[in-house]
Write a structure and sequence with these properties.
heterotetramer; A alpha/beta; B mainly alpha; C alpha/beta; B: mainly alpha; two-stranded antiparallel ribbon; 14 helices; 2 strands; C: 6-stranded parallel sheet; 4-stranded parallel sheet; binds adenosine-5'-triphosphate; binds magnesium ion
């Protein structure tokens, strides 16, 4: 095709001598949403980073509008009109939202910046993406989802020819996703080429035109999304099909309450949170961005100091000491793997064993056992890594998330609170994780699952608590009648 | 409502440091009153700022470097080197103005070497500037074989001791002019905002199109230039060049920045407050000396007051836990 | 020039009287205050100097404010102290300068404020005094002279070409240079300098430097250490290498530990100055200035090479200042 | 194959620092040979380690603190304080052993105060330990009115100068024993891994159940204890207590750690390499002094060699861009 806006061909890239991209290809037409699909670690983000100049390629050709592009710096890429929302946030925590949106392309005359203009312009973009905070808010004070919205605003504020979105919806809910799709459709009209990466199969069909599938750094094929199905794509991606049926849980013990939360308060963010968790139950938490689900979880485990109410674990009041609660068997998997989940500069093994060192210290740590257990999880979760000693920051996003999951699985806790556990995880691996959750239930453990992915909530949970503006709006039984629409209605407007 | 409250809180927290300075002033003024000493006189206020002037100029450079997440240990030695270098130039009868320019160039050169090694060489700033500190001190000793220089023309002294309107020491003006400029640069220019972004998240800054290496080099160059200016000021203040001059100044400069709330992890802090930090340090020295507190106690009290001032400043952070 | 400075002196005296009137209003008693600006108060020599002044001032019913720069002994710190003393309206200043020509700005400020100065210990250079147009009395001694005496002692008692190592003070300091030069001058060809290192006046650095010098030059016979501290360090290194019989040490300052070491033969000699005397003379003469008399212009407090023979006597003399 | 290559690469990069030390040794050995001086003798090797011993012990504490992302500027002053404090105790005829215990307690107390202010008080480590540095120095001067202490029993000297098997100075043994212990602690205990995690990502560590505040306090306590041990070693080495002792040691300790590859941003670094860093520094001093290089050049050469050594070490990082 000669009229494509972007053509990448025969792209190679290796890290420390390990090839990651092997003759990878991608062709994008103007005005199309081109989906890039592949398992965790397939090389999608790497391909994108080569396009944006964040990495240098080791051979291959990049053409834009038929013109070959040499190796370029991120700044040059931006100038050409390549705008990228990276999978890992690239925001500056101590600068306000509006400055983050325009960093590197500040408004103003000569050397000076015009803060006022920047703020006004920022508000326009923020409104577009549905970010309802003051533009002066510091980015570090935002929730993960809000940060994602800042990234989107930042990307669309560029004058773009090619827009790349690397898992933009992994951390946001339906409402914001819909706004994003509106924006994308607007941009399509301007004949912009859009590359879209996501592991949420459902939305691909909603937004995408064509889809390129990658496996192990290689090009597998390109298909028209209107002519294919989820199963077919999954097969191209992981080489097998994956079932998507509702999980039916017979193990739930309604008489045995393991966790009882009563009138929990947290400053002015949470009001009167009350719920019970039963033995062998998966309790889902749904809600829009900023509804306060994360705060509930953090107050329960003691990562935040609650300002009122009580949390009872097996009929005894829980202290607000996090290490003590972890020892008792209540663990929290953070939604923010970069800030709170992982020590990025440490190895896969060190991250997995970190919460579990007490088990391994007798009194000296037994390295063999550590290696053994790390490799065990690398296998069962199929974490794609060179070895257990690889630094986590060198893993792909989804594989990093698997490390976070591994570290909490290994802790063998009684109550697991998983906050967006499958954020950025591919369909195949998602299934493994669901299976592991089922195993946990079978062992008599209980799970609270916070997720922005309603498909997953409906598939896994026994009951669903829907939150809105710091309160639990309702708790719904997950029976055959429950649909995404019902949950969304409660999340957005409340019960009335 | 809440937003308003938050705003006031925010303002207050940047005000804590001024409050701290105010309290220190008040305590000294009262104690001195009781002891029958003069503390709160206009002349003494000028003294305090003059005594803070050199450190506060160095502290500008220190702050910039710290905001990018680095550190500059070389400024004290550069002060010493510039004294001898400038001294030799003046002795060779170069016009003061030209000597000044050459000194600033020399300072910029040191800074440039530091910046290149940090940004392109990937050597940690601590090591680079520790090395530069030793090289500059060695050169200060070497180029005049360890000898101090004296006997400068009167005009040199006027560079620092001249009084504007016969009242305000010019050194006080330098401080306010430089700080006014740097506050504008940091707050209202692209360069300033880029410095914050580099320190806040270097990868994000790079991927957003900020030329991070250039920014880092420029910041070290500026630090070198301010060190040179400090060196010239010290030379003029003493009309004497000592190859050992400036030893330990880097620590005072860094301390001023950190007391003023510049975070050593980078990306954060208001540069104007650095001046307050420097003035707090010199107020302490001045006040304790006027009260004739024995030297040993002075050290102890200074240590305790610095920690207490910052401790008070962090009240909010402690509460937010 | 002398007459000129004298009128200057008179001027300052009248100014002092005015100040006095002001102070009278503030203070309840008519006590005069002397400001003592030390080089540092972190070592024995300077503490003794300050104590000499303090004891004398108290005996005469005067107030004395003792301040000193910290370990860096910098001219800048002393300038700050003097500025603060001027602000605080002291009546006279005893100055132990950190360098002989680094305090012109400070002197000018005192002159402008009309505060009389007496210079102790380290002499301000004539060119400095000329530059600021002041004539300042000096009581102290000459480091060069003291070191030269030590050198002469070596040239009398050692063979020609004695293999000598010198431990120097902080590079660039007036005292350090004078002591080094004086010794070289006095010793003449009696010594062959085979190593010289800076140990920054410190015990531990003296120790390290001596250790390295000994291992590089096992033939060394004499250490001249520009202060006793470095000598104390060198002694440790020599003892450890079991070379006490072969290597002799000469120190400088006559601090109490050095005197003990001379007494028991571990130091060959040390050079004594009379710091307490300087402080005492300073106060006595400042009183004269206060009373409108002329201060003694120059007193050499003398230096002496203290060896085993006269160490007892010297220790007796020191006791009078305790 | 590739994995093997990577492993070797990884090993090599931790080896660069040893290589650097090797090169420095070689250069000195050759030059001294030519100049006819003795450098490569067993005795001199022991000298080098003995001369590095105190700094290397302090550098253990410095490294621990740096790994948590902090800094400890107070250790040099604590060395000085402990000298006088221990000296007074010994003069008061306390048994050496008991005096040693009390010194270590005093050091621990300083460290505890530092740690509490950093972890619970939220005061930046730079400020806390700068304050502690001044307080400790002031106390060192105050408790014996600025006077040094001498005339200690012979047995005190033996604490450092005793030779095991009549050959190996006991100070060399101290160094290796302490490093052996700390290498095991950092690599093979829960406490050690927790220290790394706190420095790597304090939030992640906290949410993983690490009691981060306790870890921080303990690390500063350890730094205080190692400073006290260094102080005792210096006292014994000189059998002379000087209130100014240890000034500037903190910088040498930190430099040793950073040369050894401990990252000032925390979470990373092999503590064993800190020892290599300390030995590099003392080899430089020793070699240059043996060659009788004039002081000016010594400072300059030291500065350049330190930067070059680390520059060579960062080759890989530069390439990976
Ligand atoms: N900086 C790096 N250093 C070493 N290896 C890397 C680096 N970045 C990526 N890799 C490796 O390259 C492979 C591809 O990573 P990439 O991030 O492109 O995957 P991805 O397709 O985006 O996966 P995900 O869906 O999990 O985001 C992974 O195996 C990863 O370990
Ligand atoms: N410490 C804090 N300071 C300021 N605002 C806060 C703080 N903690 C929480 N908030 C605000 O409280 C709201 C609830 O955030 P939270 O992260 O719990 O939402 P959530 O339901 O988990 O949504 P998501 O995870 O999808 O973003 C957000 O608007 C967030 O900005
Ligand atoms: Mg990816
Ligand atoms: Mg959340």
């Amino acid at each position: 095709m000669s009229d494509c806006i972007l053509r990448m061909s025969n792209i190679n890239k290796s890290f420390f001598g390990v090839p990651v991209l092997k003759e990878a290809r991608l062709e994008v037409l103007p005005g199309e949403v081109h989906v890039l699909l592949g398992e965790n670690g397939a090389g999608k983000s790497t391909l994108i980073k080569i396009l944006s100049g964040a990495y240098t390629r080791e051979g291959g050709l990049i053409e834009i509008n038929g013109q070959a592009i040499p190796a370029i710096s991120p700044k040059e890429a931006l100038n050409i009109g390549i705008s990228v929302i990276y999978q890992e946030f690239n925001l500056i925590p101590d600068l306000p939202v509006y400055e983050n949106i325009f960093v590197g392309k500040e408004f103003g005359k000569g050397i000076f910046v015009d803060h006022k203009q920047a703020m006004e312009k920022a508000e326009v973009f923020m409104k577009k993406v549905g970010l309802n905070v003051s533009p002066k808010t510091l980015v570090k004070d935002l929730s993960v989802a809000q940060k994602q919205l800042v990234e989107i605003a930042k990307a669309i504020s560029n004058h773009v020819k090619i827009l790349v979105l690397d898992e933009p919806t992994a951390a946001i809910t339906e409402k914001e996703s819909d706004m994003l799709f509106e924006i994308i459709k607007e941009l399509q009209k301007e004949k912009i080429g859009i590359i879209y990466i996501s592991h949420r199969m459902k939305e691909l069909f909603e937004i995408g035109d064509r889809c390129t599938v990658m496996r192990d750094g290689e090009y597998v094929g390109t298909v028209n999304l209107s002519e294919t199905s989820e199963d077919e794509l999954t097969k191209m991606m992981v080489g097998r099909t994956v079932n998507f049926e509702k999980n039916i849980n017979n193990l739930k013990d309604n008489d045995q309450v393991v966790l009882e939360v009563n009138q929990l308060q947290y400053r002015n963010y949470l009001k009167d949170i009350s719920f019970q968790l039963h033995k062998g139950e998966i309790l889902g938490f749904a809600g829009l961005v900023g509804a306060g689900r994360t705060e509930v979880a953090k107050c329960v485990v003691g990562a935040l100091k609650k300002t009122g109410g009580s949390v009872k674990y097996k009929n005894t009041e829980l202290s607000s000491s996090l290490p003590e609660n972890i020892r008792k068997g209540i663990v929290y998997l953070s939604e923010d793997r970069k800030e709170e989940g992982l020590v990025l500069s440490h190895s896969v093994m060190d991250n997995i064993v970190l919460p579990n060192l007490s088990k391994l210290a007798k009194p000296f740590l037994r390295k063999k056992e550590m290696v053994c257990c790390a490799n065990n999880y690398i296998q069962t979760l199929r974490i794609k890594t060179h070895s257990h000693l690889t630094e986590v920051q060198n893993l792909s996003g989804g594989n990093q998330q698997k490390v976070v999951i591994a570290k909490w699985l290994y802790s063998e806790a009684d109550i697991c609170i998983f906050d967006e556990p499958t954020r950025g995880i591919d369909v195949g691996a998602r299934e493994e994780i669901y299976n592991i959750m089922k195993d946990l239930i079978e062992q008599g453990k209980s799970i609270i699952m916070i997720s922005s992915d309603l498909v997953e909530i409906l598939k896994m949970c026994d009951r669903v608590a829907v939150m809105r503006e710091g309160m639990i709006e309702t708790i719904l039984e997950n029976n055959a009648d429950l649909t995404q629409e019902i949950i969304l209605k409660y999340a957005m407007q409340g019960g009335e | 409502m809440e937003i308003v409250k938050k705003k006031i809180d925010g303002k207050l927290s940047t005000l804590t440091i001024y409050l701290g300075l105010g309290v220190i002033f008040l305590v000294f003024a009262l104690t001195c009153k009781i002891l029958g000493k003069n503390f709160l006189t206009l002349n003494n206020l000028f003294n305090i700022i003059t005594q803070a002037s050199i450190i506060s100029i160095l502290a500008i450079g220190a702050s910039l470097v710290i905001v990018t997440g680095g550190i500059d240990l070389s400024v004290g030695s550069i002060v010493g080197f510039i004294g001898i270098f400038g001294g030799l130039l003046i002795k060779a009868e170069l016009p003061l103005f030209l000597a000044g320019i050459l000194c600033i160039l020399a300072g910029a050169l040191f800074g440039f070497a530091n910046g290149m090694l940090v940004s392109y060489g990937k050597v940690p700033p601590f090591i680079v500037t520790l090395g530069a500190m030793q090289v500059a001190r060695g050169l200060a000793l070497l180029i005049n074989r360890g000898q101090p220089i004296s006997g400068f023309p009167k005009s040199l002294g006027m560079v620092m001791s001249f009084k504007v309107f016969g009242l305000i020491p010019v050194s006080v003006l330098y401080v306010f002019v430089f700080y006014a400029i740097i506050v504008v640069i940091m707050g209202y220019t692209k360069f300033g905002r880029h410095i914050y972004s580099v320190g806040g998240n270097i990868n994000a800054a790079r991927l957003s199109g900020v030329n991070v290496k250039k920014i880092i080099v420029m910041v070290y160059v500026l630090s070198g230039i301010f060190a040179a200016i400090g060196g010239i000021m010290l030379l003029a203040r003493l009309t004497y060049a000592d190859p050992n001059a400036g030893a330990g100044y880097e620590m005072n400069a860094i301390a001023s920045a950190v007391i003023g709330g510049i975070s050593l992890s980078g990306g954060k802090g208001k540069i104007g407050n650095t001046l307050v930090g420097a003035i707090i340090l010199s107020t302490l020295t001045c006040g304790l000396q006027i009260m004739n507190v024995p030297t040993y106690y002075q050290t102890i009290v200074t240590g305790i007051v610095i920690v207490s001032a910052v401790f008070a400043d962090k009240k909010k952070e402690r509460q937010s836990e | 020039t002398e007459t000129k400075t004298e009128t200057n002196g008179k001027n300052s005296k009248t100014e002092v009287k005015e100040n006095k009137a002001e102070i009278k209003e503030n203070k309840t008693d008519d006590q005069k205050t002397i400001g003592f600006v030390g080089m540092t108060l972190n070592n024995e020599y300077h503490i003794t100097l300050a104590n000499g002044a303090k004891v004398e001032a108290q005996a005469n019913g005067l107030k004395i404010e003792i301040q000193a720069g910290d370990q860096h002994a910098s001219a800048d710190a002393q300038l700050g102290i003097i500025e603060n003393m001027i602000a605080n309206k002291v009546d006279g200043i005893l100055l132990v300068p950190s360098s002989s020509d680094g305090l012109e700005s400070a002197l000018t400020k005192c002159k402008e404020a009309g505060i009389p100065i007496i210079n102790l210990d380290t002499k301000l250079t004539d060119s400095s005094l000329k530059n600021v147009g002041m004539d300042i009395p000096f009581y102290g001694t000459n480091n060069f002279e003291g070191a030269r005496l030590a050198g002469e002692y070596v040239s009398k008692n050692f063979n020609k070409g004695t293999k000598t190592a010198i431990l120097k003070g902080i590079e660039g300091q007036t005292n350090a240079a004078e002591r080094y030069n004086g010794f070289i001058k006095g010793a003449g060809d009696a010594i062959e300098v085979i190593a010289e290192q800076t140990a920054n006046w410190e015990v531990d650095q003296g120790y390290t430097a001596a250790q390295n010098i000994i291992s590089a030059n096992p033939e060394v016979e004499l250490f001249f250490c520009c202060n006793d501290n470095m000598g104390i360090g060198a002694l440790r290194a020599i003892k450890e290498a079991s070379l006490q019989d072969k290597i002799k040490i000469i120190g400088f300052d006559a601090v109490s530990e050095a005197l003990n070491l001379v007494e028991n033969g571990e130091f060959l000699a040390t050079v004594a100055q009379y710091p307490a005397e300087m402080g005492k003379l300073g106060v006595q003469n400042m009183i004269k200035v206060f009373q409108g008399e002329k201060a003694e212009n120059y007193i050499d407090t003398g230096t002496k090479v203290i060896t085993k023979d006269d160490v007892k006597e010297f220790k007796e003399y020191l006791k009078t200042f305790e």
